[in-house]
Amino acid sequence: xxxxxxxxxxxxxxxxxxxxxxxxxxxxxxxxxxxxxxxxxxxxxxxxxxxxxxxxxxxxxxxxxxxxxxxxxxxxxxxxxxxxxxxxxxxxxxxxxxxxxxxxxxxx
Length: 108
What we know:
- By secondary structure, this protein is mainly α.
- It has helices spanning 10-20, 26-40, 42-54, 60-67, 71-80, 91-103.
- α2 packs across α3.
- The termini are far apart.
C-alpha cells in the first residue's frame, strides 16, 4: 500500500485536509491528528506525557491527563524512568506540613 502522506506533499496535503475537514487552521488539523494518534497508541501517549513533564512543559496534573492514567500510575512510571517529580511548594512549607502530619495522634 503506498504512503498516504509523503514528505514532498506534506504541506499541500495538510492544507487540503484542513479545507476538506472543515478545520479553521492547519494547527487545528494537526492538533486533531495528534489527538487521534495518541488515543490509538497508549504507550506513545504515556511517553509523550513523561517527556512533556520532564521538560517542564506541563504540570503533573496535565501530564496525568495526557497519559490517560491516574496520578499514582504516572508517578510510578516517572519513578521507573528516573524522572524527578517537581514539588511546587517551597521546601520550608513541605517540611512544615510533614511536621504537622507527624504531630497527629496515632490511631489505636
